[in-house]
Amino acid sequence: MRELAAATLSEVGFDAAALKPGEVDIERASALDVDLVAVDYDGREHVPEEDLLADLASSFELFVTVPVRADGYDPLGDDSLRARVPEEAGEVLVAGNASYLSTEERRRAVAPRLDAASTGVTDLWVGTEGIERIALAVGGTQYDLLSRSTAREVDALRTAGLNTPIAVYAPTVLTDDEDTVLDAVGAYAGRRSRVRARLPDDTPRDHTIEGEARETLLSACREYALAGDPETVATRVDELHKAGVDHVVGYPARGLDPVLPS
Fold first, then answer.
1. Span 73-94, mean pLDDT?
2. Domain residue spans in the chain?
3. CATH topology for 10-176+230-254?
């Protein structure tokens, strides 16, 4: 028996959902109550079949991640997997998480590949992680990771006159139960460089963490994820919108069940 949702993504203000095909059955995404879905890249073994992506594109505004350095997506080399992206879907161009890249792939230059991949593409998002200036030069919707300073930085950019669309990716846990939050996003928050520097290497990144380290990690979970009861998360989503974020994209960190309509 599935857990009943305390709130769905749209009920707390999310514009879109990010799905990891290595973690969830994305065929079940058809029940989500958002208009836009972004499918992440979890390695070649988890690339969805073309017909599944086409089905999603018929139900949602669909974006598919394209790691431009990876074999199969390289616009200056093997782009056979990129060819699976339906014509009606948009693309999220990213440099690619090193965890999913070989040593050779990591050595490939990002800028010329982003330039080549973006040529002639009108519906384009660009992941900014680690390549902020390059991403801004490429154009399209700037796709940022949530941090404690996101709202302040976006507000400053809008005040300065930046009109480029901005989307923000945020792992999402709609509960105020601390153990659940830690289990869902503790490892993610613990990988952020500022947090990693404050935690001993052998410290757990889940509900078993104790003492001062627990408070440090809990604080990081709330900074780098939208975690808390639905009212708290809704307030933070609203703050991001008011700062000038066009799309707040929630990654359901506990899977689909807690955020599907009951």
1. 95
2. 10-176+230-254, 178-227
3. TIM Barrel (3.20.20)
